[in-house]
Amino acid sequence: MEEDRLEALREDEQMKHILSAWQALDRNSRLHERLGALDERKRRGILLAYVGGYTHGEIAGRLKLPLGTTKSWIRRGLSALRECMA
């Protein structure tokens, strides 16, 4: 039980770090704008993958989503970002 609490605290700290990286982006940048336009779960998925370094399976577990859904959301979110940045 104590181990579960410690793990939850570590995960909370990691999520705060990941979200602060997004917030640290220049608010006027296209990347910040496009990430902000994404659904919260899609944005978190992309940030967890590319800032936090989590695998798709780990992200699915954290967001409590099926693996296929997680992969699709990340892929679609990245496609939207790519189109915007081109």
From TrEMBL:
Keywords: DNA-directed RNA polymerase, Transcription. The keyword Magnesium does not apply. Residues 30-81 form the RNA polymerase sigma factor 70 region 4 type domain. One of its GO terms (cellular component) is DNA-directed RNA polymerase complex. The keyword Coiled coil does not apply. It comes from the Bacteria. Signal peptide: none annotated. This is DNA-directed RNA polymerase specialized sigma24 family protein. It comes from Pseudorhizobium tarimense. The lineage of its organism: Bacteria, Pseudomonadati, Pseudomonadota, Alphaproteobacteria, Hyphomicrobiales.
